[in-house]
User: Fold this.
Amino acid sequence: MRIGCPKEIKNNENRVGIIPNAAQAYVNAGHEVFIEKGAGLGSAITDEEYVKAGAKILSSAKEVWDIAEMLVKVKEPLESEYELMRENQIVYTYFHFAANEPLLKACIERKIISVAYETVQEGYSLPLLKPMSEVAGRMAPIMGSYYLGKTYGGRGILPMGVTGVAPANILILGGGTVGTNAAKIAAGLGANVTILDVSLERMEYLSEIMPPNVNCVYSDKISLENYLKTSDMVIGAVLIPGAKAPKLVTKKDLKLMKKGAVLVDVAIDQGGCFETSHATTHTEPIFAIDDVVHYCVANMPGMYANTSTFALNNATIKYGLFIANKGLEKACKESVAISKGVNTYKGVITYKPVAEAFELEKNYKDLDKVL
Assistant:
């Protein structure tokens, strides 16, 4: 199979879909790998490293898209890339369709096969979402701490406090991969940390592994409102695989919060879990509503591109090789995990939560019926 990897063009997206180790794995399995010139530079990977791994360097993104049977990326195709997508082409990347109807319609119109990292599922695990959830989760308290600075409209509170001055109160919504990693870092900073979750089993687990300055509390509206009143930072870490994130904090709720408090919406790729959120970029990462600072960067791990790129490739290469070796149709029949990753297939939606997000059930078909 001909496998291509173009340079990412999203704002300050410095990750790359294929690292030299992965390129070599594809080549050793008998496939051809084509990398756009300079695609890895944002992750400190040179073209020469790709060549040594057996890949071929092409001078433009169009050349890569034109030759590839399977495109391996990091972020969803942007509008300028829609016309490059070809019928029956496999595009293997993060899509987050539930927050991007124009992209969904473009993929249907172009009749590509979209294999979405975020919905590949092994049992209850999302193995291709997990590494970036770890990165974003660990980043969240750091970025929130930075924007708590008065210079940026924050409360001017140092999260860890100092002698004689109490640390910040950090509230985390959701105790999954993002929330767990956020809590570890926030606790390490010395803040008072509270995790709200609805799973008693998960809270029991977190209570056993977390340090004493982390408390787990059952999440309901009254608890949420009470903690919003006392929190200096709130990290949104909720996830419904492939579907829109629930709006847990409304615009009205902002009135309960302290002036200069910071919201970090890690769920923004799936539409965000704060009603007032909208996607921002690393160039303009924050905005304020009702004196509450919002940090809603849609590609947080792109800031730490080298770490993120290698962590992502460690996870994606397994499934990428399986698709390349078997072909998409056979791979789906032999791997439930990969079949769950197929969100659109040659003009139809094959992942139900995506269809439901935009009331497009008439465009939905079960993947087994269309293969």
The longest strand covers residues 192-197.
